[in-house]
């Protein structure tokens, strides 16, 4: 008789899941450093089946000058958010975001939240809270699992100094 022991590691998985979430979120923060935007740098990663299937940071569309702000320091209206860049990058790839997790360094806005829902993203893990919660509220309302993790581990999330 052979007892086929299936390794039930749900507890271990549960604990390491948080560690993995932090790791991806930290990677998203590092990815945000690619952004040439001065006011704010945001990074996003889309993970599915333990694979990063897309990435993004806030910036202008392909072919535009790598400047996010106008002469007054105001963000240009055609700047894409990190989430939008990650999702639209997926639209051009062979990957599929159905059931994936999005890691983003800032709370998603309502426009990005619409894209997240329509892209079939199941879970959103974000690091920075924002005074407006309409994006988060929309995600929650549509059944997307939303998780907030603080990245306050001694590293400053963004250097706002000029
Ligand atoms: Zn957004």
From TrEMBL:
Domain of life the protein comes from: Bacteria
Keyword Hydrolase: yes
Alphabetized UniProt keyword annotations: Hydrolase, Metal-binding, Zinc
Keyword set includes Metal-binding: yes
Pfam families membership: dCMP_cyt_deam_1 (PF00383)
Cofactor(s) it depends on: Zn(2+)
UniProt domain CMP/dCMP-type deaminase: residue ranges: 19-139
Listed GO CC annotations: cytoplasm
GO molecular function, one term: zinc ion binding
Family: Belongs to the cytidine and deoxycytidylate deaminase family.
Protein name: dCMP deaminase
